[in-house]
Amino acid sequence: MVLHLNSFFGIPVILLYHWMGTTLSLNLEDPNVCSHWESYSVTVQESYPHPFDQIYYTSCTDILNWFKCTRHRISYRTAYRHGEKTMYRRKSQCCPGFYESREMCVPHCADKCVHGRCIAPNTCQCEPGWGGPNCSSACDSDHWGPHCSSRCQCKNGALCNPITGACHCASGFKGWRCEERCDQGTYGNDCHQRCQCQNGATCDHVTGECRCPPGYTGALAWSVVSLVLRVVMGKTVPRSASATTEGPVTWLQVNAIAARVTQGNDARMSVQWGLTECSVLRPASV
Predict the structure, then answer these.
(1) Bridge partners for 89 per DSSP
(2) What is the C-alpha separation between 9 and 23, in angstroms, rounded?
(3) Could you give the angle at the alpha carbon of 145 between the alpha carbons of 140 and 148, nearest 5°?
(4) What are the EMI domain coordinates in residue numbering (predicted)?
């Protein structure tokens, strides 16, 4: 049997399929590319033995036919017919969990990676500061980094940066982990404020309040300040005059309150209130 492949615009069918397979398929050497055998059909012209009745003559005793007799026999000759032939070829395709994009096989994630990218089938790589299966959950206060996989090392109530893990110290603390108190003589945010304490008093590293040594005083309660200003200056002091509304009030705060209430009209009063912390000698007890 002889096969004759039909042509398509002058190109043999088998060559046409070969050309399509090589130009439209992925490269098996590329990552995430798999292959399988697929079947396809082509139209062919095939030869086959076609039977026919062959007449031949033999010698015989038939006088009327001049001693020739007619005989029949089945013979075969080559004929041609159209048919279909199943053929097989190796086809490239993206491996399971991947899809083709711009002639490459890229991973597929069923859920969109909100703050990250898909790096493997249904696997997201989150940006720093985000976690969860699809990178949609912000890191809590104790974790940072990609997938919130790193634990914060911040101390003393410091805030942890969810992206870098850097610590933002609370008032009164410093250091990489905010594990150190402000040096003596400084207090507040980033320890940038200088204490006003005198006569060996110690300064609170958070508020700047002075702890006076024995024999000195300087801190007044709000009620006392308000009372003194009303009696001495004849002024009613609103609580908005000071950021401190309860607890101890320093002499420095009293001076600021007096200046705000008097609007600078009484310089002597301002000088009188201009005492710093622990600068008043406590009267000796009798």
Answers:
(1) 38
(2) 18
(3) 45
(4) 30-107
* Helix, coil or strand: residue 24: helix
For residues 190 and 168, give the distance between their C-alpha atoms in angstroms, rounded to a whole number: 9
User: What's the pLDDT score for residue 62?
Assistant: 83
CB 177: neighbour CB atoms within 10 A?
A: 16
Integer Cα distance of 123 and 112 in angstroms: 10
**CATH class of the domain comprising 116-168:** mainly beta
Q: Which of 178, 218, 226 is nearest to 199 (CA)?
A: 218
pLDDT beneath 50: ranges in the chain: 1-24, 220-225, 227, 231, 235-249, 251, 264-276, 284-286
Question: What residue has token string 């720093």?
Answer: 128
Measured CA to CA, the distance from residue 119 to residue 125 in angstroms comes to 6
Work out the burial of residue 217: count CB atoms within 10 Å of its CB; fewer than 13 is exposed, 13-18 middle, 19 or more buried: middle
The Cα 173–Cα 162 span in angstroms is: 20
- Taking alpha carbons only, the member of 278, 178, 266, 259 closest to residue 220 is 278
Cβ proximity of 187 and 208 under 8 Å: yes
Burial class (CB in 10 A: 0-12, 13-18, 19+), 251: buried
* CA–CA distance, 262 with 239 (Å, rounded to integer): 15
Q: CB neighbours of 196 closer than 8 A, spacing ≥ 6?
A: 208, 210, 250, 252, 276, 277
Handedness of CA 273, 279, 283, 285 (dihedral sign): positive
Ranges of each domain in the chain: 3-96, 116-168, 186-281
CA distance 83 to 13: 14
